[in-house]
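To: structure desk
From: M.T.
Subject: fold request, one chain
Message: Could you run this one when you get a chance? Sequence is below, nothing fancy, just the single chain.
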Amino acid sequence: MLQRIRLVRSGRTKLDRAILTEQYRVLGQQIPLMYTLVFLDAVFLGFASYGSVSPRLSIVAPILLGFAAAGRSLLWVARRGDAVPSLRKIRRYLIGTIIAGAVLSLAFGGWALMLFIEADLARRTCIALYIFIGAITCCYCLQTFPVAAWLVMGFGAAPVIVCLIASGDRFLIGLGINIILVSAVVLRMFGATHAGFVEVLASRAEMAAGQRRARLAEQRAHQLAYHDPLTGLPNRRALAEYLRQAEPARFGLMLVDLDRFKSINDVHGHPIGDQLLRAVAGRLSWVVGEGGRSYRLGGDEFAITLPYPEGDLDRVRSIAHSIVREVARPFLIDERMHHIGASVGIALYPEDGNDADTLMRRADVALYQAKEAGRGCYCAFATQMDAEIRRRSTIEAEMREALTQGLFYPRYQPIVDLRTGQVIGFELLARWRREDAEIGPDQFIPIAEECGLLNTLMLDLLDRACVDTRDWPIPAGIAINISPGQLRDDWLSHKILSVLARTGFPPQRLTVEITENALIVDAAKVHHAIESLKNQGVQLALDDFGTGYASIQHLRMLPFDKIKIDRSFVESLGESTETLRIVRAILGLAATLDLPVVAEGIETLETAEMLRALGCAQGQGYLFGRPMAKDEVEKWLADGAVPPAAQALIRRIGP
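Reply: Done. Structure tokens follow.
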């Protein structure tokens, strides 16, 4: 029955638990006071009725009731010193309060009823008022626990009120009715007070919940602001915060860049790339351990901060070496083994920089040098590196200005048919007039590709070359080199064809040369770009064959029109039997696939004779002509389309 009418809350909800706890706290303060008043009320009522009733009612009964009230009061006082009990104990205490209140109220009501029966009219009025005032006082102390207040009023005051109504005396009947009305008003007021008490607790609980949500939101915002959501590592902002607040202690800053990650991400998709990044983050954290901290800066870039004792630089280098080694181990993701690498740049605090910007820049410089050294290694910052980076930065700025001023221009190196000696085409090579000196492509093409200028440069040179060569006396073709990075441009083929259409240059006279490395960057994207060009008649050559990752499968992936043997094989052809076997194998493979071969770097007549004897169809090199300007080529063509060296070759071997 107690549960059915919810005498005590269950404690299943947060609000119930808050109400139970607050009721226990308030009752712990009010109940001792209530029982003290009940004790005094019993003493005064017994004293007032002494002599007019039997000693059992005026002495014994008040003493017993007083001891009971004092005992309950001392029990609650003793609980004040204890910690807040569990909800189960609180519910047990509250149920005990209900039972004790009901029993003591019945005892007081029964005692008052017996006093009322034996007393005269005047004393009956006093008894009724004593009991009513005591009951109201108890109800006031129990207003946060209305069930107990109702029981006190019902069991304590009700018997006397019934006697007043049933007395037959109009004065007592009026008093009884008045007490009933006042009790109803008081109990209703206490009900409203309790409802307000519950509402305040609900508001307080909601406010506390709101504060908890705000704290959690703040923690979540901090987590998002300072951590990478994909890997869970601290992010670039966290690293900047660490560097700004760097203590005097020494530490090493390592920037880690993943090698070959982009190709895996492009070929296998972002979900595989994301899993790979999480796996890399796990390995970095394992390698660094508790002594350092790993960060993800974005993309495939990570960073490490590692404190080290003075003079113990080997610790930083050892960790960098371990990072390179561990990242180079294969990753098993989605039942497939993936192979990547890592390049690491190291800068030390405070030796290499005592502020965040300088330290980051110099670690980045060291990382760049690690990549330049061939990737898959680490490099510590050195002062001369900064000068090299500044030089490259200066070249980049000058290149941007040179592009707008037209200081880049084409040069043409002839490609000769080794059987007839005739010039059949030219390779387009870039030159740059810088400070009254002609700069070769090996000095600026890598920088142009790194800073995103290579496409602009190539298209500008192609435009000029098409105009230069379109009306030459012989329909010689021109060949241009396309880097793997350029093939990532979805619009590359469209841009090249637009140049051909604008200049009126026949697509059949243009040969696009790609390296073997382009075949493993993104085969689908390369195939799409080449297919668009081939559909318009553009020729395709595989450049630097034999130096990369090419295979027969790669040769069959794209419709190549020719193969170019790298100059490193040609230059050592007469000196190394191993090179001779490799060149013979390449020529045999090309013959099987019915692909003509162009040999680069021919500088002697003997090398040209050997290549022709082996079956090489075409040759290119300083023997037949250096890269020339447009006017030189036109004068050269006007004198005859066969270079002198080619004529000598034909005379020595015969057509």
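Reply (cont.): Confidence is low (pLDDT under 50) at residues 1-5. Let me know if you need anything else for the meeting.
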